[in-house]
Specification:
Number of helices: 3
Shape: globular
Structural class: alpha/beta
Distance between the termini: 20 Å
Radius of gyration: 15 Å
Largest sheet: 5 strands, parallel
Helix content: 10-25%
Strand content: 15-25%
Oligomer: single chain
């Protein structure tokens, strides 16, 4: 999902300028770069890629399409999520960023809190639920394309 509120926080990864919505994506009014949003997420990867990459970019890792659906948290996942909820005390009005969100499952598990969620990951293997209900960015955490102080909570 690319909501209008995403444009209050998203920034150009090259020049840190606020983006202008241009369906299906956005443009940077300063450097004129165009960002794709046609897949349900905004692609804000920097032009220069870092040499180190993650195994999660490998298509073969996702061949079974497990990332496409989100199951309820069980066992260790439930314990971690319960701890996260207690620690952050998510509430309506919170703007939360999930740094390295993967499929987006943790945001999905916490939708009932009333907080709004933005997820960012270098790999675009997002679940259908996350694509439908959370703002998602494809980007590199080492060159974070987000405004300073835009979120009340993060994990």
């Amino acid at each position: 999902m690319i909501s209008p509120s995403l444009f209050t926080t998203a920034r150009c990864p090259e020049c840190v300028t606020a983006l202008t919505p241009r369906p299906p994506g956005a443009t940077c009014p300063s450097c004129r770069r165009v960002f794709d949003g046609s897949h349900g997420y905004l692609d804000l990867r920097p032009i220069a890629a870092f040499a180190e990459q993650t195994k999660y970019l490998d298509d073969a890792l996702h061949i079974d399409a497990r990332h496409e659906t989100v199951a309820p948290p069980l066992l260790g996942s439930k314990i971690r999520n319960d701890q996260l909820r207690r620690f952050l005390a998510l509430a309506p009005g919170d703007r939360v960023v999930d740094l390295g969100c993967g499929s987006g499952r943790t945001m999905i598990w916490n939708r009932d809190t009333g907080a709004s969620f933005t997820g960012i990951d270098i790999s675009a293997f997002f679940s259908r639920d996350a694509l439908e209900s959370c703002d998602l960015l494809l980007g590199d955490l080492r060159k974070l394309p987000l405004a300073d102080k835009a979120f009340t909570k993060a994990w």
